[in-house]
Write a structure and sequence with these properties.
This protein has about 230 residues and is of the alpha+beta class. Helix content is about 25%, strand content about 45%.
Length: about 230
């Protein structure tokens, strides 16, 4: 003989209990999840997003990941899944629809919430350095005509943009017009070296490399600023 089970709170006959009350009473008493309003910081120069103490590409996926980390789900919900839809309201203002699904007493349940948030503009460390004329290397472009030098400059800027996707310090902190071309102050020596090799390949010329002692590390290691020169004179 089987005994009927009743919810001690509402008196309803049921087989589905969570914390000794029926599923409906539990859902009235307790939220499936809470959302801590996330704080987003966007570099106004390179448009990178600060995520888990790292500057990453600014896109919907990065924002959704950050929001998901701020979703706190009750322990009673089994096999939970989070779904996030973003709506851009203005340049810095967003709305997010957050849906959480999972099993409560073997029953699939779903709840959703909306939050509004704003991206806060700031300056990342790399762009702060570039704005202060920081450079680890100088890339010198030299050409026989003004037209050629401007074409070299545009090509170099495009190559540096690709490097900036991986490291914002690959940008230029200054571009100086010279008699036969341009001098580009580049924040990353690695980027300057890579771009100069690509330019040398494109123009079929050799790179002229030099270095200048600019200081000494606390460890005693000497610091140099490298110059990479590409000439198509």
């Amino acid at each position: 003989m089987s005994f009927k089970k009743f919810c001690p709170k509402c008196g309803k006959e049921t087989e589905q209990f969570v914390e000794n009350i029926c599923l409906d009473c539990f859902l009235k008493k307790k939220e499936l999840f809470e959302v801590e309003k996330p704080k987003f910081f966007l570099c106004k120069y390179c448009l990178k997003l600060l995520f888990k103490n790292k500057w990453v590409d600014f896109n919907d996926e990065s924002i959704a990941k950050e929001i998901a980390l701020n979703v706190n789900i009750i322990k009673e919900l089994k096999q939970p899944k989070i779904f996030i839809e973003l709506e851009k309201k203005s340049r810095l203002d967003y709305k997010a629809l957050i849906q959480v699904r999972g099993l409560l007493s073997k029953t699939l349940v779903e709840r959703e919430k909306e939050i509004n948030f704003q991206l806060r503009e700031t300056t990342c460390d790399s762009c702060m350095k570039l704005n202060a004329s920081y450079r680890e290397a100088i890339l010198q472009l030299r050409a026989k005509s003004e037209k050629d030098s401007f074409e070299m400059l545009q090509l170099t800027k495009n190559l540096l943009k690709k490097e900036m996707l991986k490291d914002s310090l690959s940008g230029t902190s200054n571009i100086i017009k010279t008699k036969n071309g341009f001098d580009l102050w580049i924040g990353s020596k690695k980027a300057a070296s890579k771009v100069s090799r690509e330019l040398a390949r494109i123009y079929n010329v050799k790179i002229i490399v030099s270095k200048k002692l600019i200081g000494e590390e606390k460890s005693g290691e000497r610091k140099y600023r490298h110059t990479f020169c590409i000439k198509i004179l």
